[in-house]
Amino acid sequence: MAHVLILGGGFGGVVAAKALATTLGSEHRITLISRNHRFVFSPALVRLALGECEIDDISFDLREAMLSRRVQFLEAQVAPIDPYSHSVRTIHSTVEGDISYDYLIFALGRRLATELAPGFFEYAHHLLTPESAVKFGEAIRQFSSGHIVLGWCPQSRLALPVYETAFALSRYFEEKGNGQQIKLTIVSPEAVPATGIEGIPVAALQNALATRGIEFVPQFPIAQIERGNVISDDGRSLDYDLLMLVPPYKGAGAVVGTGLTDEDHYLRVDDHMRVSGVSGMYAAGDCVSLPGPKMGHMAVRQAEVAAQNIAAEINGSNPNAEYKHEIMLVIDTGDADAIFLRKNVGRGEPATVRQGHFWRWAKKIREMYFQHVHR
Ligand SMILES: Cc1cc2nc3c(=O)[nH]c(=O)nc-3n(C[C@H](O)[C@H](O)[C@H](O)COP(=O)(O)OP(=O)(O)OC[C@H]3O[C@@H](n4cnc5c(N)ncnc54)[C@H](O)[C@@H]3O)c2cc1C
Fold first, then answer.
1. Using a 6 Å cutoff on CB, does residue 34 contact ligand 1?
2. How far apart are CA 199 and CA 221, in angstroms?
3. Is 109 in the pocket of ligand 1 (CB under 6 A)?
4. Prediction pTM value
């Protein structure tokens, strides 16, 4: 009998739990630990902010979902781990103590390193939790004229919601009839409107921004935020009336000091999603050290590979499922033509870019499919 412990109730953890529950025999135990019992479909947080859906439409209860697939769920905070002891300590829970495991899937996501952007907490809105999305939405509804600045900080590794928010706000104020009184600006540390992979300008994205009159300020690495101003690392200043930023990211705090991470605290993994330098530990999602943006579809694929390889190890076979690092995203511009981009990160081959109404529809269907299958 083996015990597989999964940390994190996000994309990576939920997908790994489902994959293991369907492949492992019932003699094996699977436990999922997360500090919150709700899974939230974060790509829909832009729509939540704009009041286009309710939190219940984009989230589900992990306790029920896991029960129905024989995974034990524990709502608890995971303390910094010692991966060599094959046990994890939980805190702030009814079950506080050490839980031992044979295999671990680490999927605790990333830490928001707001200390790298002084003033972020005081002055910036963000969209990384349902609560912050709702708060940003309230600020939008009270806003009738002025300058809205949206952007991402250096090391934030997530540009997509910034573009989607800009397009959604442009549409929102146009429909309200005060589009002329609102100026929308995107600030980016990158040189061109891209998608978090340096060196891939997307002409379709540039055109869509121009069509909507959204200003793009390139090479503006935010170093500080003050009331009414964002400041770049070379001292340039941009004024705002309303600000929404993606903060810098770092790897999950629970693995800091283990010696298993890169300098930004992301876990180093091999092609099989095994954490390098320790036995029995796999990782999936935003917490792993791979180049490019951090995205949910990557977490899903990584979790499937990790689960497949753990099942193989338990069944005495070689863990030979491999992960291919690929970015695939759909930017919903709100107009007829959504933008689809696919690129194998790390390889020299060009990105595939497509544009059309189909991709907007495909994104919605993917959201509904994910919620239906994993709920
Ligand atoms: C606004 C927005 C829009 C996005 N749009 C897209 C998109 O269109 N397409 C796309 O592919 N990706 C998108 N993403 C990115 C995607 O959401 C993330 O890449 C994905 O959530 C990563 O999954 P994960 O499982 O690694 O981490 P997470 O989803 O962050 O899950 C980590 C889990 O671990 C828990 N946890 C963390 N620390 C602890 C601890 N110490 N103890 C216990 N539990 C803990 C958390 O509560 C959480 O449940 C978007 C993200 C945002 C915020």
1. yes
2. 16
3. yes
4. 0.93
42 Cβ closer than 6 Å to some ligand 1 atom: yes
CA of 227 to the centre of ligand 1 (A): 29
Q: What's the rounded Cα separation, in Å, for the pair 268 and 149?
A: 35
User: Alpha-carbon distance 61 to 9, whole Å?
Assistant: 10
| Backbone phi, psi, residue 106, to 5° | -95, 120
Domains and CATH numbers, the chain: 3-111+250-314 (3.50.50.60), 114-247 (3.50.50.60)
Ligand 1 atom closest to the CA of 45, numbered from 1: 1
Q: State the distance from the centre of ligand 1 to the C-alpha of 198, rounded, in angstroms.
A: 22
Which mean pLDDT values do the consecutive 10-residue runs of the chain (375 residues) have?
Answer: 97 95 95 95 93 92 88 94 93 84 98 95 96 98 97 92 94 92 95 61 79 93 97 97 97 96 98 97 97 91 97 95 87 73 71 66 64 64
* Closest by CA position to 311, among listed 282, 340, 344: 282
The verdict on the CB of residue 128 being under 6 Å from ligand 1 is yes
Report how far apart, in Å, the C-alpha atoms of 119 and of each of 115, 229, 287 are. Answer: 9, 10, 25
The one-letter amino acid code at 343 reads: K
